Amino acid sequence: MSTEQPYPFAPGEWLPPLSKVFQWVNSVRDEAVKDSPIPIDEPHHLNPEAPYPTVITDFKDLVENDAGLKKLSKKMFNEIPRFENDPTKFYNVKNFDEALMVFNKIMFTPPLVMSISSSMSAITVPFNAVLNWPANTPSGNEFFLNKDVNEKLRAIISQWGDFLRSPASTAHLNDQPDGWLSDEYVKKMKEYAQWKGDIKDLWICDTTQPHWGWNSWDAFFVRQFQPQNRQVAPDDEPNNIIVNPCEAGPQVEEGKTYPRDVRTKVQARDTFWLKSQPYSIFDMLNYDGLSRRFVFGTVYQGWLSSACYHRWHAPITGEVVKTALIPGTYYSTVSSHNYPEPDPSGPNLSQLYLASVATRALIFIDSGVESLGIVCFIAIGMNEVSSCELKVKKGDRVAKGDEIGMFHMGGSAFCLLFENGVDLEFAEVPKENNPQGLFKVKSRLAKVK
Fold first, then answer.
1. GO cellular-component terms in the record (predicted)?
2. What per-residue confidence (pLDDT) applies to 12?
C-alpha cells in the first residue's frame, strides 16, 4: 500500500494520503511529549500531577481500573506493525497514554487543511487519524466495541465540539494556504456542490467579513445554501417521488454497481460484521417497535464528503411518527479490514457496517400513501462525526425538502429504509459537471413504480 496515494474506494476525503496523516499525527505527538524529561523517542505516560482535562483523566482511570481494558489498551499498540527503517513515514504513537496526550492537543485545535499536489485535503477527523491504527488490530477491534470506552470517547469528542462552536475555533477560517476559505479549498467546495459561479452566490455568507461571517468552525461546517440553489423541482412534488435527504453520493458494497445493487429483501438479522457487510434491520433500528415493517424491505445508503453540505432534509411529505438518537461505537471497523490489510481511512471500508453500530439518529416519516408507507431516515455518525442534531419531533408535519436535522463536527453517511413491498426505481447519478458522483440535496432519488 502506497503512503503517498489517495485511498482507493474512500468516499468523502476525510483524510489525506497516509504519509500526510502520519506526518501530522507524529508532529502532534512530539509536541504533546516535548516537555517530558523522558527522551522523545521513548514511550511516555500521563503525568498524574499535570492539569489534564477531566475527560482525559476519566478515560485513563477507566482503562487503568479495568484489567481487561488495560490489557487490550497495551496489546492494541503492540500489535501495530512498526517500520523502524523510516519511522517518520509511519505511525509513531507508542501507547495509550500518548494517544491521550495527543487527544489533549486536538481538543483545543480546529481541523486543518493541507496541500496535496495540485489539490487540497483536510484532516477533518483528527481523532480517527490517531486511533485508526490501534483500532485496526485484533485487540483494538475488541477495545473499541466496549460500551464504557465509547462513553469516554463521547465525552472527549463532546468537549471538542464545544470548542468547535466557540470563536476560538476560527483559526483556519481564512484564505491562507492552509485555510478553509483558501482559493484551493473553495474550488473543492464548488466542485462538490456542482457549482460554477461565485461562492457567495452558493452559500449564505459575507465574503467581506472576517471568516465570511461564520463565528466558529461549526458554523462554517453547517453552512447553508442560498435558498434558490436547492429546491424541490415541481416534477418531484408528487407523493410517489423520493428526494435525496443529503448532499451525497450512492454507497453500495465494494465491487457492486449503483443503482443495480441497491440492497433489497434485507434481513431482520444478519452477520453485518463480516466483509460483505449485509444490512441487519433490527440492529440498524436498535430493535425499535417499527423494525418489522422494514424486514425484507429496501435500504439505500449515501456518503457525504467533508466538503459537502451537512444538513438533512425530508425525503417525502408526511408526519413524523417517531425519532430516536442511538449512542453507538466510534472507531469499530469490520474485522476483515483489520491487519494485515487495514482500512487506511477507517472506517471508510466499513460504512455499511456502521449503519448497525455507529451513533445514529432515526426519523420515521409516515407518507400516508399506501404504496409508500413509512420511510425511515438514518443519519450515521462516523468516528467523531457523531453529533446528530434533530430538528423535528414526533407529531411534526414535514413537507418534502424541509430541514429535519444536521451533522456537526463532520459528516458521514445516511440510509433510507423502505417497507417490504415498496417497489422503487432509483435515479441514475447525474453526469454533467459532477465529477464526484453526487446527488444534490432535494433532487430526485427514486420513485415508487
1. mitochondrion
2. 47
CA-to-CA distance for 403 and 246, rounded, in angstroms?
10
Question: How open is the CA angle 66-67-72, to the nearest 5 degrees?
Answer: 100
Residue 9: per-residue pLDDT: 36
Question: With 50 as the cut, is the pLDDT of residue 284 above it?
Answer: yes
Name the residue type at position 190. K
- 3-state DSSP assignment of residue 299: strand
**Of 223, 128, 134, 137, which Cα lies nearest the Cα of 173?**
223
* Residue in 312, 159, 311 with CA at minimum distance from that of residue 222: 311
The type of residue at 313 is H
Whether 253 is covered by a domain: the verdict is: yes
Contact criterion met (CB below 8 Å) for 211 and 161: no
Please indicate, yes or no, if residue 81 is contained in any of the structural domains. no
Give the residue carrying C-alpha cell 483536510.
Answer: 122
Query: What are the grid coordinates assigned to 266, written together?
Result: 434485507
Tens-digit pLDDT profile for residues 352-388: 667 777 789 999 999 999 999 999 999 988 766 557 8
Q: How many Cβ atoms are within 10 Å of 200's Cβ, its own excluded?
A: 13
Q: Please tell me the total count of domains within the chain.
A: 1
DSSP 335-399: GGGSTTS--TTTTGGGHHHHHHHBEEEEEEEE-S-TTT-EEEEEEEEBTTB-EEEE---TT-EE-
Beta strands in 19-135 (DSSP E): 112-116, 119-123
- Which CA distances in Å does 360 have to 72, 79, 286, 428? 26, 30, 10, 27
Domain that holds residue 437: 241-448
Q: Is the dihedral of CA 265, 310, 283, 399 positive or negative?
A: negative
pTM attached to this predicted model: 0.89
User: Does 296 reside within a domain?
Assistant: yes
Q: Is 43 inside a domain boundary?
A: no
pLDDT of residue 231: 96
Q: What is the CA radius of gyration of the chain?
A: 22
Residue 118 has pLDDT above 60, yes or no: no
User: Which has the closest alpha carbon to 332: 46, 183, 180, 141?
Assistant: 141
Q: How many CB atoms lie within 10 A of CB 205?
A: 20
